[in-house]
Amino acid sequence: MMFQQNLQRIRKQRQLSQEQLAEKLGISRQAVAKWENGLAYPDIENLIRLSEVLCVTIDSLMKEGAECFNREQEDKEWDTDELLDFVLEAKKNTYAAKGKEEENPCRPGSHDFAYQKGAYAYLDSYVGGRQFAGEEVIRNKEENIWVMNYMGRTLADSFSGDFLKSALMNCSKENPFRGPALYQKGEYTYHSRYEGDFSWFDGKEEIFYKGDKVYECYFHGGLLR
Question: Considering only CA atoms, which of 107, 124, 106 is closest in space to residue 115?
Answer without folding.
Answer: 124
